[in-house]
Design a protein that fits this description.
With 204 residues, the chain is mainly α. Helix 5 runs parallel beside helix 9 and helix 6 packs antiparallel against helix 9. The chain has 11 helices and no strands.
């Protein structure tokens, strides 16, 4: 008589994985990657340690999926905007609006990217983070250069410094804005940031 075959393991529901990622992103953003433990992530997600490791073998795996999801496709989205051509001021407006809105609507991931720069630079598995951000910055810088060349933006600007300040402006809003809370909507913040930027760089 043949022995009964053991039932195949049942994969846990996808929704549980998303809950874990959301909890981990919040803890990594609030407490830092080093301080956020797998035990605490599991506890706040309402899941036992053994079940947590069924989804993610290491804390680095969690971080990788959180960041990779956000960054994946970003250069292509920016490149598609740049490929439209047209007025350089309109292009920069669209790049800034898309980038700032993406940042403000994903504050936990953006906070992680900002605060864990040393970790990403030191670990080979996270080399894609710096590579992706550099690709995006090249697109933005090209838009600024084109705007100066075509007379839309002031000459004499240090464009790498201008770009650094634009990116820092987006990062600073992530620190204090919380979606669904506070006095200002995402649209209000993005519009104010764009007005501020263009007041400083527009020609004439």
């Amino acid at each position: 008589m043949k022995a009964a075959r053991a039932p195949a393991p049942v994969a846990p529901p996808a929704g549980r994985r998303e809950e874990i990622l959301a909890v981990a992103a919040r803890l990594f953003a609030d407490d830092g990657f080093d301080k956020a433990t797998m035990r605490r992530i599991g506890k706040e997600a309402g899941i036992q340690p053994a079940s947590l490791y069924y989804h993610f073998e290491t804390k680095e795996d969690l971080l990788d999926e959180i960041v990779r999801r956000f960054l994946s496709g970003l250069p292509a989205r920016y490149a598609a905007l740049a490929a439209r051509g047209g007025d350089p001021a309109k292009l920069l407006h669209d790049l800034v609006a898309f980038g700032f809105r993406a940042s403000l609507e994903n504050p936990a991931v953006m906070a992680i990217i900002i605060h864990e720069r040393k970790l990403f630079a030191a670990e080979p598995r996270f080399a894609y983070v710096g590579k992706t951000l550099r690709e995006v910055e090249r697109i933005w810088l090209s838009a600024l250069e084109r705007g100066v060349a075509e007379g839309a933006f002031r000459r004499g600007l240090s464009l790498p410094l201008v770009l650094r300040m634009i990116l820092d402006l987006a990062g600073s809003a992530v620190e204090w804005h919380r979606p669904g809370k506070g006095r200002y909507t995402v649209d209000e913040i993005v519009d104010a940031q764009i007005d501020f930027i263009f007041a400083g760089i527009r020609a004439g």
